[in-house]
Design brief:
By secondary structure, the protein is an alpha/beta fold. It has three domains: 4-89; 106-363, Aspartate Aminotransferase, domain 2, CATH 3.40.640; 367-481, Aspartate Aminotransferase, domain 1 (Alpha-Beta Complex). It has helices spanning 2-9, 12-34, 47-60, 66-72, 93-104, 115-132, 146-161, 166-169, 185-193, 217-226, 249-259, 296-299, 353-363, 366-388, 414-431, 458-477, and strands at residues 139-143, 175-180, 201-204, 230-237, 262-266, 291-295, 307-311, 392-394, 402-407, 437-441, 444-450. The longest helix is centred in the N-terminal third of the chain and has 23 residues, at 12-34. Keywords: Aminotransferase, Decarboxylase, Lyase, Pyridoxal phosphate, Transferase.
Length: 483
C-alpha cells in the first residue's frame, strides 16, 4: 500500500496532468487580473474566517480545487489596482524557473549540490556589481530577503573594520552603527541581533524631506565616542521604505571614508535604479559603498524571496562566517566562490539565481530599465495629481514609486484626521477594489501607495482618489462621525 502511494506521488503522468491544469489556471488568472476582468485587487477575510476555511478544506475540499482556491483567496499582485506593498508582479516566465527550482531542489550549500545555479549566481552578481560601478574585485551572492542580507552586511562590516575578532572571541565592548531614523526596521533588528543594543543604534535625524541629515553626522559620531561606543558602520537608505526618499549617498560615503567606517547601502527597493538611465541619479554615490543590498522581488519582477548582497571588495565574501564544517565545507587555497554555504546564513537555499539569469537571457538588462523607469514615472505622476487635488496633502514630493498622502478636512483636528484616514484605509481593504497600505510619519497617519504594476495608469489613480474622497465624506457625515 505504501509503495502504491509513493508511486502515485512520483507519477510522471499525474505530474503532467496536474501541471497542464495548473498552467492553464494560472494563465487564466494572469489574463483575468492584467485585463481587469476581476474588479478587486484583494478578497479580504479576517484571519479567523480564513483559518476556518482552510481547516475545513483540508478535511472536505477536493484536491483538484486546491490550486484554484489558493489563487482566489489571496492578494492579486498582477492587478493594476494592487498598489500596496513592495512586492512585484512576478514576470510570468519566473513561474517556470520557480517550478524548475522546486523540482530539481538543488540545495546549493556546496558546489556539487548546485553546479549550474552556483555558476549562474556568479554571472548575475557580476552584472549587478558592474552596474553599481565597481571593478572586477567586487563579488556578491544571493540570499533570502533584504532582512537577512542587511544583517549579513553588518556582520561583514564588523569583521572587516574592528581589530578584535568578535566572531570567534566575542566582545564586551560597546559597538554601534549610524543609521537614519527613517531606515527600514530590519537594520534596527539586525543591530539588536548582533548584540549592539539600543545604545548601539545611533539614529540620525532626518530633514524635512525625510532624508538623513548629513550635517549632524560629525556631532552624532562624537557623541557616541564620548559615551565609549565604537562606531564601525554607517547605513544609507536607497530609499527609505516608508517614504521612498533616498539618502545623500555621496555625502554619507565621504563621511564613512573620512572616519574609516564601513559604508552600507540598503538598496533593497531602489537599488535596481542602477539600470535606469533616467533615475540612476537617485543613487549618486552608491559606488562609494562597501556593500549594497538589492531585492530582485521588489523592483526587478522576480519571485519572492530573491536578494543580492554585493561587496565592493570580494575578499570579504567568504570571511564573514569563517568556521569549520569538515563534513560539508573544506578549506581552500583559492577563491572558493562556488560553495555558497561559506558565504551565507543559509546552508540550503533555493536556486534563486536562475530567476535573475532567465530575465537577463530572455529580455536583457533593458527590461529592468523599462520597469524601474515606468514605475518611478508613475510615482511622479501620482504625486502631481495629489499635489493639485484640494482634498489631499502629500507627505513629500516622491523620488520613486512610493507615494505617501492623506485626506484632509478643514474642520477636523490632527487626531480626527488620523482616525479618519485609518478608517478609510480599512474600508478600502475590506472593499477590495484597491489595495494600498498606510504609515505614520511625524505623528500623521498617511495612506501609502507603491506603484508596482507597470500597467497601473493615471485613470486608476483618479478612480482611487475619487473612492477615498467618497469614503471619507461618508464617514464624516455619518452618525458615527469621527470623534
Amino acid at each position: 500500500m505504501q509503495n502504491t502511494l509513493l508511486h502515485k506521488v512520483y507519477s510522471t503522468e499525474l505530474f503532467e496532468e496536474n501541471g497542464h491544469r495548473a498552467i492553464e489556471m494560472l494563465t487564466q488568472h494572469l489574463a483575468d487580473k492584467l485585463q481587469e476582468k476581476t474588479g478587486k485587487a484583494i478578497h479580504w477575510n479576517d484571519p479567523e474566517t480564513e483559518l476556518e476555511f482552510w481547516k475545513d478544506f483540508l478535511e472536505h475540499g477536493k484536491p483538484e480545487e486546491l490550486f484554484k482556491s489558493i489563487t482566489e483567496r489571496t492578494t492579486y499582485v498582477h492587478h493594476p489596482h494592487y498598489i500596496g506593498h513592495q512586492v512585484s508582479p512576478a514576470a510570468p516566465i519566473t513561474a517556470l524557473t520557480g517550478m524548475i527550482s522546486s523540482l530539481l531542489n538543488n540545495g546549493m550549500a556546496v558546489y556539487e549540490m548546485g553546479m549550474s545555479p552556483s555558476a549562474i549566481e556568479r554571472v548575475v552578481t557580476n552584472v549587478l556589481c558592474e552596474k553599481i560601478g565597481w571593478n572586477a574585485d567586487a563579488r556578491g551572492f544571493l540570499t533570502s530577503g533584504g532582512t537577512l542580507a542587511n544583517l549579513t552586511a553588518l556582520l561583514t562590516a564588523r569583521k572587516a573594520i574592528l581589530k578584535e575578532d568578535v566572531w570567534n572571541a566575542g566582545t564586551s565592548s560597546a559597538l554601534g552603527i549610524m543609521v537614519s531614523e527613517e531606515a527600514h526596521y530590519c537594520v534596527d533588528r539586525a543591530a539588536r541581533i548582533m548584540g549592539l543594543g539600543e545604545k548601539g543604534i545611533i539614529k540620525i535625524p532626518c530633514t524635512e524631506s525625510y532624508q538623513m541629515d548629513t550635517s549632524v553626522l560629525e556631532e552624532k559620531y562624537q557623541e557616541a565616542k564620548v559615551k565609549g561606543i565604537t562606531i564601525f558602520a554607517i547605513v544609507g537608505s536607497a530609499p527609505s521604505t516608508a517614504t521612498g526618499m533616498f539618502d545623500n549617498l555621496e555625502a554619507i560615503g565621504s563621511f564613512a571614508e573620512q572616519k574609516g567606517l564601513w559604508f552600507h547601502v540598503d538598496g533593497a527597493h531602489g537599488g535596481a535604479g542602477v539600470f535606469s538611465k533616467k533615475y540612476k541619479y537617485t543613487l549618486k554615490g552608491i559606488e562609494k559603498a562597501d556593500s549594497v543590498v538589492i531585492d530582485g522581488h521588489k523592483m526587478m519582477m522576480l519571485p519572492t524571496i530573491t536578494t543580492a548582497l554585493l561587496l565592493k571588495n570580494g575578499m570579504y565574501a567568504n570571511a564573514t562566517f569563517s568556521q569549520k564544517a569538515d563534513y560539508l565545507l573544506t578549506d581552500s587555497d583559492h577563491e572558493d566562490w562556488y560553495n555558497s554555504g561559506k558565504r551565507t546564513f543559509e546552508c540550503t537555499k533555493t536556486m534563486m539565481s536562475i530567476h535573475w539569469y532567465t530575465m537577463l537571457k530572455f529580455y536583457g538588462e533593458e527590461v529592468f530599465e523599462a520597469y524601474v523607469t515606468q514605475l518611478y514615472d508613475m510615482g511622479a505622476a501620482l504625486g502631481q495629481i495629489i499635489e493639485k487635488h484640494p482634498s489631499f496633502a502629500l507627505a513629500v514630493t516622491p523620488m520613486s514609486n512610493i507615494v505617501c498622502f492623506r485626506y484632509t478636512h478643514a474642520n477636523l483636528s490632527q487626531n480626527q484626521l488620523n482616525e479618519l484616514n485609518a478608517k478609510v484605509r480599512q474600508q478600502l481593504l475590506e472593499d477590495g477594489e484597491f489595495y494600498i497600505v498606510q504609515t505614520k510619519l511625524r505623528g500623521w497617519h498617511y495612506l501609502r501607495v507603491t506603484v508596482m504594476n507597470p500597467f497601473t495608469t493615471k485613470v486608476h489613480f483618479q478612480n482611487l482618489l475619487d473612492k477615498i474622497v467618497l469614503l471619507a465624506q461618508n464617514l464624516v457625515s455619518s452618525e458615527t462621525t469621527i470623534c
